[in-house]
Give the backbone structure.
Amino acid sequence: MRYISTRGQAPALNFEDVLLAGLATDGGLYVPENLPRFTQEEIASWAGLPYHELAFRVMRPFVTGSIPDADFKKILEETYGVFSHNAVAPLRQLNGNEWVLELFHGPTLAFKDFALQLLGRLLDYVLEKRGERVVIVGATSGDTGSAAIEGCKHCENVDIFILHPHNRVSEVQRRQMTTIFGENIHNIAIEGNFDDCQEMVKASFADQSFLKGTRLVAVNSINWARIMAQIVYYFHAALQLGGPARSVSFSVPTGNFGDIFAGYLARNMGLPINQLIVATNRNDILHRFMSGNQYVKETLHATLSPSMDIMVSSNFERLLFDLHGRNGAAIAGLMDSFKQGGGFSVEQERWTEARKLFDSLAVDDAQTCETIAEVYEQTGELLDPHTAIGVKAARECRRSLDIPMVILGTAHPVKFPDAVEKAGVGKALELPVHLADLFKRDERCTVLPNDLKAVQAFVSQHGNRGKPL
């Protein structure tokens, strides 16, 4: 399997090199040169498989030539063996044909564990084989950071620096990052918003001279391995609901477009998906594109669903690449226009093509709280604010009541007590046993100004397990 850049000017790489590269040298994102496709009979034969075995069958084509089957099977068994539910991603029914796919049974109670528990193990495997050491610099709007730290904390050949917007993540999210200590773990609170953090990461990848010879690796969803891992649970959910003999629709809470792009890929790999709904909050750049062909950067707002407080959706470039016939030069031009002018539209026929599969809805804080309260009253199920947005969007945008609708349950509600409280739900929220003492643990974090040079100087000074790089 070879991977190419969405901007067409970077060399094609194998899986190992893509894992370590993250962003392409031309600024683009890596995608498979040819997407594997499964027959309906092949998909049907996977019904009833344990999650790690299904993951092996879905992801195997992406790592062929880089990781032997036996090694990859072992990595996957270890990855999903740490999840607290035997089904790994259980489905919970809300009503007759509406389901929540619970993706929060991993160590940090968020869907990002699916990819980042795997990413840490893949990095360990590849770096040990190569005898290399790398630096991770990642940005988080809340959940990626803790999942990345949890997934990579035992990696012998990795130093990890996670940037989060100061005072713009929930207390549980922050503490899940700042209470994990290790010589190779560094939390940085940036006096800015998530987009500022993400821009610093991108700028650091573009010029890595501050590392003095060590290389950067991405843990954000620009890293192909994260997208690859997320494809699996679309197959998992569909198989539970009669797929591939019947179509399934999905509503996906998304800010950076990575999770829903994985669903788009699952469909292109042969899974019958009828509809993908982009569910977002007040920061609605994706909704404005899907509903009106306007991809325009606006002011970022803090909301009750902070993991989607994102104004520039990095993975959207991967979809644009396909919509433009995989023309790298066209995407480079679009991204340059966005950088210079803050927005763009695409040709009508390309937008129309996207709308054949995608619908969207932007949900504000008041509607989010109303949905949390409504679902709790109707079913006794307590949703986190991101999942609630997914439910609201599913109910507003659903094309067919006959087709099962799956909402991706992206996080445990205990991570967002403010939203639950504002929703007026009187249920006491208790942390799982492994996090029961979270609020008593010591924290370690460095607050830095919204300044790229200050961040890079910190990374250079504290890398290599406390020894300057």
Residues 86-108+224-422 form a domain with the Rossmann fold fold (CATH 3.40.50.1100).
